Amino acid sequence: MKTIREPRLMHNESEGFRSAGKRIALVPTMGALHGGHTALIREARTRGDVVIVTVFVNPAQFGEGEDFNRYPRDSEGDLRTASEAGADILFAPETAAMYPPGYQTFVTVEALSLPLEGAARPGHFRGVATVVAKLFNITCPHCAIFGQKDAQQVVVLRRMSRDLDLGIEIVVVPTVREGDGLALSSRNAYLSVSERREAPVLYRALRIAEKRIRAGERSAAAVVAAVTSEITARSSASIDYVSVADAETLEPLSALDAGRTLLVSLAARFGTTRLIDNIHIRIE
Ligand code: AMP
Questions:
Q1: What distance in Å separates the CA atoms of residue 197 and residue 191, rounded to the nearest whole number?
Q2: Alpha carbons 264 and 28: distance in angstroms, whole number
Q3: Which end of the chain is less congested by CB atoms within 10 angstroms, N or C?
Q4: Does residue 13 share a domain with residue 107?
């Protein structure tokens, strides 16, 4: 595996792959690579002749007071993990190479960026869309692999790829979880021992939502109440939001009609650590 730090060099390399007729699969990450990321890299391996993993902690997607400065960084571990999972190139640019002085161009996917994570983290998806658009331009992929863990991110980036005629296929990999259900996340490293013990309540609460809906519950408010009470009764977490929305439009729902795919999603804080999780439920 080769490491590249300069956007210009990365772009030249990708142009070389393209002119040799190679299919490029991209896996954008913020590093501190774990089993969720390696699932994406393995998926990329099945879809591309060349697999490019990017590691870039993108300041533009962190709000004021968020964890940009303390976000876990592990460049040695990332090299090893990306290489073992089958990456050909690790692209890890410096911040100044991505946002040089005078930088002022941003990509905004409008309505889809507003609810859920967008409401809790204003400007977050503007940062995400901008950096992913840049990574797409630098690495020239045919497809890019993302995790279901960040469900709204997938919806926003699919819209961006369509709206800007990027022609890049957005591939989604299911959320990888610990044995107790906790979704793998670089931020899990912040959890204290007791918070870590409590954190699986998030997925348990989502499974309760699923069970209720499959048993015929059609009120979104009742589902939200069941999820909320499971979390608050069984942990010290404070809830940012619990939502039942249409999985494609992200429109909040009150009645859960047949023929839709629902996105049940939530964000909660354990101490200072903010975790997100979600599930999709198809109602036939
Ligand atoms: P991050 O490094 O957190 O920005 O994540 C990079 C990519 O990995 C995103 O597409 C995430 O959705 C994906 N990802 C993170 N955690 C998981 C997980 N537990 N399962 C599947 N994909 C994940």
A1: 9
A2: 24
A3: C
A4: yes
Strands of 24-29's sheet in order across = 2-4, 89-91, 50-55, 24-29, 143-147, 169-173
Angle at 57 between CA 124 and CA 120, to 5 degrees: 20
Domain that holds residue 143: 2-173
DSSP tag of 142: S
**Which residues are annotated as catalytic?**
37
Q: For the whole prediction, is pTM greater than 0.90?
A: yes
What tens digit of pLDDT does each residue of 44-72 get? 999 999 999 999 999 999 999 999 999 99
Is the domain of 147 the same as that of 255? no
Tell whether 225 is covered by a domain.
yes
Please give the number of the atom of ligand 1 that sits closest to the Cα of 187. Answer: 3
**Of 178, 104, 99, which Cα lies nearest the Cα of 135?**
99
In Å, what is the CA distance from 115 to each residue of 95, 163, 251?
A: 28, 19, 8
201-214 vs 220-234: helix crossing angle, rounded to 10: 150
Q: What pairing do the DSSP bridges indicate for beta strands 24-29 and 50-55?
A: parallel
Q: Which residues does ligand 1 sit against, CB inside 6 Å?
A: 29-30, 36-37, 39-40, 146-147, 149-150, 173, 175-176, 183-186
Query: How many angstroms separate the Cα of 6 from the Cα of each of 11, 65, 138, 184, 230?
Result: 9, 29, 10, 30, 48
In whole angstroms, what is the distance from residue 229 CA to residue 212 CA? 14
Task: Give residue 30 CA to ligand 1 midpoint distance, Å.
Answer: 9
